[in-house]
UniProtKB/TrEMBL annotation:
It comes from the Eukaryota. This is EF-hand domain-containing protein. It comes from Rhodosorus marinus. GO terms for molecular function: calcium ion binding. Residues 9-44, 57-92 form the EF-hand domain. The keyword Calcium applies. The keyword Membrane does not apply. Keywords: Calcium.
Length: 100
């Protein structure tokens, strides 16, 4: 089965998005950076996906997942933690998109 999260395109997009979202170039992403980054991503996706999926998550939803994936609890996601977050997030998004 084709697995989007292991594809080259996905991983390249992931790396690019990490650099884009990490606004202060600290090499880590905090929840505020992540939240505004997701808003941006959803705005882009919204142009291609049905309206239901295009609604960006609330800051509280992002915060909840953020805490789960911040494995060392330092309040920031390094690239590996970020990857875990995004893989989880987009798997869920794709799963839901099958039901539209
Ligand atoms: Ca940062
Ligand atoms: Ca961390």
């Amino acid at each position: 089965m084709f697995n989007i999260t292991e594809s080259k395109t996905f991983n390249e997009a992931l790396e690019m998005s990490f650099k884009k979202i990490d606004k202060d170039k600290s090499g880590q992403v905090n929840s505020r950076e992540l939240s505004s980054g997701l808003n941006f991503i959803y705005a882009q996706l919204g142009k291609r996906l049905p309206g239901k999926l295009a609604t960006p998550p609330t800051a509280a939803q992002v915060e909840e997942s953020f805490r789960k994936f911040d494995r060392d609890s330092n309040g920031e996601l390094d690239y590996e933690e970020y990857k875990g977050f995004m893989v989880h997030w987009f798997k869920d998004l794709f799963k839901r998109s099958l039901h539209v």
